[in-house]
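Notes taken during the Thursday session

The instructor put the following on the board and asked us to keep it in front of us for the whole hour. The protein is Sulfate transporter CysZ. We were told not to look anything up and to reason only from what is written here. First, the residues (256 in total):
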Amino acid sequence: MDQSHFSGVQYFSKGWSLIKLKGVRHFVILPLTINLILLTTASIWLFNQLLIWKDEFYNWSWGWVQTFIDWFGWLIWPLLLILVFIAVFYFFAMIANWLAAPFNGLLSEAVERHLSGNFSEQNTPFSEVIKDLPRILGREWAKLKYWIPRALICLLLFLIPVVNLIAPIIWIVFSAWMMAIQYVDYPMDNHKVPFQTMLDKLKARKMGPLGFGGMVTLFTMIPVVNLLVMPVAVAGATALWFDHYREKDAMVKTAE
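Then, after some discussion, the predicted structure tokens were revealed:
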């Protein structure tokens, strides 16, 4: 598909179907287990902390701030809750992605093999994945370096009067963008597409990746359902890559 604009929303739902396929589902077990442990930990910690943070806020804030919150709490608290959920779950998801990166690459390969119909091709042996681990973790480090300065800028916007009114929207859009980068990078990296080249490809057609990343962000905030998000997102992102970014990338792999 060569259309310059496309919706990426449907690729998240497609990921749910792909992870259940024979030849794919057994690659889901390890990423799912890692995600289960970390996001369960995040959920328990977050729910225990929320009430503590709220009490501390009222103890340390000025009287006029408390009055303002009392008047507009119906709007402010839901927005803050959403932002906290996104920040905390993104942080734990980032750790999970570091730990699961080798297995996510194998899952992406299995999904690609199904989509291409090339069932005779075997996944990369895990021994080769272990040898390639420094490069895989280096790729995750590249994502982190990309995320940190931009995340800090987004957070600083919350401190600027007037601008802070739209800061939550900017943060949510940025989170969706990062989710797209995180997961579309797995099939790109499998084909040895350089990180900057991958970014350029996504930036050239932003709406599709943003739609997909938005769905990943949304489901990451839903308790229980978020435990399945990682493998679903890997499968869905691979399908998105296969339909919209595959052809030239395949040439890169062949050349190397």
